[in-house]
Amino acid sequence: MKTLTPSVMNTPARLLAAGLICIGLTACVTAAPATQPSIQAAEQAIQAAETARVLDAASPELTLARSKIQAAQKAEAEKHPLEAKRLADEARVQAELSVARAAAAKARAVNEDLKTSNSTLKTELQRNTGNQP
Which tens digits make up the pLDDT trace of 37-77? Predict the structure, then answer.
């Protein structure tokens, strides 16, 4: 019968230890979610909202977006990447919502103008043809 030397008997334990070290190193190397792309996307959305002159129609959403982007930048500076990414994503959504609400308000105003114009045209047509409303 063949006897095992101490170095051979420790081989499974060594393999297990090496595997655990690799897993541990992989966990350390795996970076937290990248916050810069989220923060940049939020800043671009806020700029787009400001360019679209959202300030009047959807001011609360735009104000909230600005405060959330500031909080995201602070969280990133304090090394809280998950919170920074979440806040940046929320800021982007709020900025996009402000643009959508402003567009909806403009569309409602145009719709009301068209209704008024249509009503005026109907009245003029009926007056010119002699029919009463």
Answer: 889 999 898 888 888 776 565 578 888 999 999 999 999 99
Q: Alpha-carbon distance 121 to 117, whole Å?
A: 6
CA dist., res. 57 & res. 106, Å (int): 8
Q: Are 64 and 94 in contact (CB under 8 A)?
A: yes
Measured over the CA atoms of residue 117, residue 120, residue 126 and residue 129, the dihedral's sign is negative
**Helices then strands (H, E): number in the chain?**
5, 0
- R_g (Cα) of the chain, nearest Å: 32
pTM for this model (two decimals): 0.64
Question: Cα(93)–Cα(105) distance, rounded to whole angstroms?
Answer: 18
Interatomic CA distance for residues 7 and 89, integer angstroms? 54
Instruction: Kindly report the number of other CB atoms within 10 A of residue 88's CB atom.
Output: 27
Alpha carbon separation from 92 to 73, 85, 110, 132 (Å, rounded)? 13, 11, 27, 54
